[in-house]
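Same chain as my last thread, 161 residues:
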Amino acid sequence: MGNTRPKGRMTASERDYKQSQGKDLFVKGFSLPSISEITGVGIKTLGAWRDDGQWEKERELNNIRPSEIKKLILQYVIDIKEGRRPMHKADDLSKIAAAFDRLNDSRKRAVYTMESLDGFSQFMMVLAGNSTGKKREDLLELLKNSRMYFDKYVNELLQND
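reply #2:
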């Protein structure tokens, strides 16, 4: 008779995947309505996931990653080099870098973990994209499972903050 689960209901696996996808998009700056369009998950559900999973804290952490701070500084240098007025003041950039240095250890670990996870995820997606069949499926499954544990670890670091 096939799959008879009610329309709109997700399996645990689908929910975990969509929740992870939604979190990634939210942390990268997407709005809940945009995430809803992309994932097919309702805005109310996404809002509940956001609140339960502390997505806001991770969004904040995403914006203070060392790579983001470096981008701001590099953009400042490029703007000056090309004769444009920089968007940020050198003093502000210095304060941002100093503020990162003053973060407590668990928050820094969370920031570095998230940055490492993104790099690892991109690496695994390239490997999966260059693979086929069972190997591709295995790589994607490994990524999905490891992502779940990385997310739990980051949440634990944030709760210890």
